Amino acid sequence: MRRHANPEPEPVVDTVAVELQRTLNMLLPIRRQRLNRSERQQREHEQRLTQLETQTDRAGERLNEYQQGYQQLRAGFAAQNCGVHQAIYLLERALEQEQQALKKVHGERLTLEELAQARLVQQQHVEAARQETRQRQRDVEKLEFLLQQEVSE
How far apart are CA 41 and CA 136, in angstroms? Predict the structure, then answer.
């Protein structure tokens, strides 16, 4: 029996495909790490936004309390002091209390405005973080798809 001098040809190794596979395998953990970092930053931004919303709600409640207190103080001042003869220091004390209450109202109003502005900025950060996370997710999915295509070929 005669044997063939040329046994079955050895499969040709496609060096470009091997190199591409190696590169994709090297890139995938890096992309996943970036995705994880992006997701973590997104969660942090969302938590900060939640905190700001809570602080804004509390400041709004305090503002309402201060405004009601101020209105009651003004109404009480008018009722107690109109048409009544009393020492000037008592009027000055009542006026000082009213001014302090008004300062609290203005201070809380400023705080509320600052919190609202910070909340808007934080909402922008959250949206940017979400977009970045979506982009990182797409990057990982593309690499996984390419790796899957290389394996099936």
Answer: 12
